[in-house]
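step: validate -> pass
step: tokenize input -> pass
step: predict -> running
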Amino acid sequence: MSKKKRLKVGMLVQVINRRNSEVMPQIYVLIEALGEELWEISPVSNMSRVKYFHTKQLKVVLCK
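step: predict -> pass
step: emit ->
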């Protein structure tokens, strides 16, 4: 049984590289849900840029 990610707008995430499963260092904010599996994200450092990723490619950032 797969573990579902409970992503919500405003959460901080990192992107997982599909080719080598490496977690990229840049942190993004979830801007908008575009269906069940597609998200519009923006880097924390530059909110004017927008990218689109599937839920499987996102890893939630846990803040301490």
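step: describe -> The mean pLDDT is 89.
step: cleanup -> pass
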